[in-house]
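Re: the 423-residue chain
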Amino acid sequence: MKPRLISLDVLRGLTIILMTIVNNPGDWGNVYAPLLHAEWHGCTPTDLVFPTFLFIVGVSVVLAAPQKSFYPGTIQKILTRTLRIFCLGLFLSFFSKIHLFNLEGLSLLGVRLVITVFVVVMLFANYNRRLQFYVALFFFIGMMVLAFGGFEDFKNVRIPGVLQRIAIVYLVVSLLYLYTNWITQAVTGIFILLLYWALMTLIPVPGIGEANLAKGTNLAAWLDNYLLPGHLWITSKTWDPEGILSTLPAIATGIAGLLTGTLLTAGSSKIQKVKYLLTGAVFGVITGLIWNLVFPINKALWTSSYVLYAAGLALICLTILYYIIDVKGLSGWTSFFVVFGVNPMFIFFFSGIIPRILSGIKIVNPNDPGHEKITFQTYLYEFQITPYFSDPKNASLAYALIYLLFWFIILYILYRNKVIFKV
C-alpha cells in the first residue's frame, strides 16, 4: 500500500501557493522584494519555490512505489509521464506563437483555445497507456519540428522551461530509484554537485576566456546559446535560467528528495525519522552556506551551494510539518493547503495559460475611448484593483492574492469532487 503523507501534500500546497503569488503580480514594477528573485547571486523566498518542488518530486517518486516494482510497462509509464510534462511546458511557450491565416484578436484567441483544449485532453486524460505514450511522443516530435523546421512563427519559441526541467528531473530520479540503492543515489548526487562546480569554475568559456559566474558569459550561458540559439528565455535571449547545463545540478535536488523519501519509508520510528531529517536539513543548509563562500548561491545558475541550501530549507519545512501533522496528528488545519497540493500539474499548466488568455483579450481603454486598446488583464488591475490602494505594491500584491483566491475556488471544487488530474 502506498503511504500517504499529509505533510508532503501540505508542503506541496505551500509551494504552489507561493508560486502562484510570485508569478502573478498586478505590476512587475511594484513587487515586494521577498516576492522577487535575487538579481543574481543570493537567495530570496521566491528562489526557494522551484527547488522545493523538485525536492518534492524526488520524495513523491519513493512514496509512489515504496516497494520497487518492475512490472511490464514500468519504464514506458515513466517515459510517458516525462513526455507529457515536457510537452505541457513546451505548449505554454507555443501558445502565443500560434497563428492561422490572417486571424487576429478574439478569432485567433479562439483558435488557440480550441488547440489548448485538444492538448489538455490528450495530455491529461487517462486512456490506454501505450496510446498515451505514442500521443505524447507525437506532440513532442511535432513541436520540435515546428521549432527547428524553419517555421517563421516558431523560430524563437522558448524550449527550456519549468515544466520541462521538472520532466527531466522526474525521469532521471525515477530511473535512479528503480535501479540503484540509496548509497549509489547519494554518491551520484555528490558527484553531480562536484562535477558542476568544476565545470563552472575551472573550464574556460569559449570566446570569453577564463571561467566565470557572471550573467550571460558563464559556461552554462555559452552552452545554452550554442545549442539553442533563438530558443531561450525572452528576457535574456542568450541564456536561460532553466537551461541545459544547469539542469544537471537540478537533478541533485531531486536526488535529495529521493533520499528523504527513502528515510520516510524506512522502518525506524517517527521520532527517529524526525531526528534524521532535521540532521540532514541542518547539514544541507550549513554546507550550502559554506560552499557559498567560493561558489555563490545562485538560482539562475542552480549552483551546487544553492542545491544544498535550498534542499536543506525544504527539508526543514518538511520535518516541521511531518512532526506536527504525521507525528502529533494535528492535521485539522491542513485542508486549505492540501487543496493546492493534490493537483499540482493542473495548476502549473493553467496558471500559465490563463494570463496568456487574459493578455489576448483587448478592450478599449476607459481613459482613452476609441483609441488605445489594453489587455483585459491590464484593465482588471488598473481599473478594478489599483483605485482601492494608495501603495502600488499593495495593489500589485492584492491582484496576486485575488488570483490565488480564484484558483482556490476552482481547486476546492475539484477536491470536494475527488477530481485529481494526473499527468
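The first helix runs from residue 6 to 23.
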